[in-house]
Amino acid sequence: MDIWHLLLDIVILLAIALTLGVLFERLKQSAILGYLAAGALLGPGALNLVSNRPAVSAMAEVGVALLLFTIGLEFSWRRLRRLGAIALGGGTIQVVLTALLAAIAARAIGLDSSAAIAVGAIVAPSSTACVLRMLTDRAELESIYGRNSLGILLLQDVALVPLILLVSMLGSGGSAGAILWGIGRAVVLSILFVGGYYFFSTYVFPKLIDVTVTSRNRELPILFAVVICLGGAWAAHALSLSPTLGAFIAGFLLAESPYATQIRADVSSLRTLFVALFFTSIGMLADLTFIRSEWRMVACVVAAIIVGKALVVWPIARIFGSLHRHALATGICLAQVGEFSFVLAQIALSDGVLDDHIFRLIVSATVATLFLTPYLVTVAPVSGEWVEERLVGLGIVSAPMQAPSATSGKLAGHVIIVGFGPAGQRVTEALRAAEIPTVVVELNPRAVALAKRHGVHAEVGDASQEQILEHVQVASARAVVVTVPDHRTALQVISQVRALAPHGKVIARARYHLYAKDLEQAGAHVIIDEEQQVGSLLGLEVIKHIKGAKGTALEETFRLL
Q1: Alpha-carbon torsion 156, 158, 159, 161, what sign?
Q2: Angstrom distance (rounded) from CA 244 to CA 72
Q3: How many whole angstroms separate alpha carbon 260 and alpha carbon 380?
Q4: What is the CATH number of domain 3-392?
Q5: What is the 3-state secondary structure (H, E, C) of 98-163?
Q6: pLDDT digits over 277-290, tens only?
Q7: What pLDDT is recorded for position 205?
Q8: Is residue 73 classed as helix, strand or coil in its secondary structure?
């Protein structure tokens, strides 16, 4: 392979991706759409200007690995446990049920049994890269539907191995016993992989890497991050596991190390580069000629996938305790076919399980759903709320609220705390120390149980709902403190509070400075800007450690600023 031809392909791809990305951003659309459009324009279905597509696709997979690696760095065992039920139980049900329903639909339109099962396996996964990238960009990964989506996506990555084995067995005529043996082998190898990486990151790595040396040389942490990320992806691939899952585990196991924050910063530029390549490479798979000639069929399949997957996930998320709004939002976020389904489709084609026409139809529909993903993620929370309101209005479901507790009584002069995460817990401790009565409103029943164990009056409910705020008597409250990290939820809560208690004080948390102005416009009286507060505390710590009169002068200067 001529390296210079490959370099030219990459330059062309990135240049057109940059141009269309800027254009879509100016049109207030996601830049991801620009990247996908760039790939479709330069691919074989249009101008066909990229000659080394396999090499570009291989490099693009590095982008997905880096994306999952950096997301893994954001996690801890505690945060992962919070995903447990919906990830393991909900994700498993989603994969099995979606594959089954898709297979039944494929069989109904005339495909043979093997082809129908292959179609079910191909349709079951959603796009880890697209959904997590959008949720991260929109700061919604910590929202309820964001956490639900992440949990199910991680299980889908685990399920990729059994799905590949299943499709491969359909082509080779393997038995059910062979499939079960392959799945059992994958489970054992996954356990060995996680155990090996945990041992390395806990016991070997601290002895190999000197904190002092890496802090002096910025190149070393970058090299270390790339080695760990790509090493994890390669090791998982070598064990016939999902490379992206390997990269996530590598990042997750390093999340508790002192290097996690620096590594996230150091690999962000590399991640941006390779993720852009990934989306353009996906766009190159679009067969525009086929889509143009069979657009009705493609449109019907795309609609069936989006509606079907959303309707499958909705009740599953409800089973695991989500409100209708969050359950449906989760389903809409996951209502596309994943990037690794192309691998499954290619295996099915090469083994003769799918014919060329069905293969091109599935690939075209998959690319179309990926093009629609930014819009799906954007409308998911709004659509979830709208549908829930309609269901409540029609009397089909009851309003999401907790029955009044026997201890609530007549409340007045109290402070309502929305959310009982770490921030809400600290606010509660401060108010209780000042002997100010408090009421916590939290959607998570386990958090409410924790609050009650500490003697705090807490209710399970959605504080953006009028009935919930009326139940905790917001009109007579001294103040409302909004501690939830999701800015959209915070905006809804503030608007509802201002409507029900126009004279009440609202103190809100802004996780990112970008959203502070939105909270102010929604009606918050006091906004605690996390990024500004962290900067202020850092400045005070610097001043505290500067000696003598010079330090006093600096402290006075800081106060004036």
Answers
A1: positive
A2: 11
A3: 31
A4: 1.20.1530.20
A5: HHHHHHHHHHHCCCCHHHHHHHHHHHCCCCHHHHHHHHHHCCCCCCHHHHHHHHHHHHHHHHHHHH
A6: 878 888 888 888 88
A7: 66
A8: helix
The C-alpha atoms of residue 319 and residue 475 are separated, in whole angstroms, by 34
As a whole number of angstroms, the distance between CA 134 and CA 469 comes to 31
What CATH class does 415-544 carry?
Answer: alpha beta
Domain layout of the chain by residue ranges = 3-392, 415-544
pTM over 0.90: no
Look at the block and give the residue holding tokens 């009584």.
409
| DSSP secondary structure letter of residue 231 | H
**Cα separation of 43 and 49, whole Å?**
7
Q: What is the CA radius of gyration of the chain?
A: 26
Q: Vertex 258, ends 253 and 260: CA angle to 5°?
A: 55
- 3 state SS of 169: helix
Q: What is the mean pLDDT of residues 308-331?
A: 92
Strand 479-482 versus strand 457-460 pairing type: unpaired
pLDDT, tens only, 406-461: 444 567 789 999 988 888 899 999 998 888 899 999 877 778 888 888 888 888 88
Q: Give residue 30's pLDDT.
A: 80
Contacts of 357 (CB under 8 A, 6+ apart): none
Q: Model confidence over 132-150: pLDDT tens digits?
A: 888 877 777 777 888 899 8
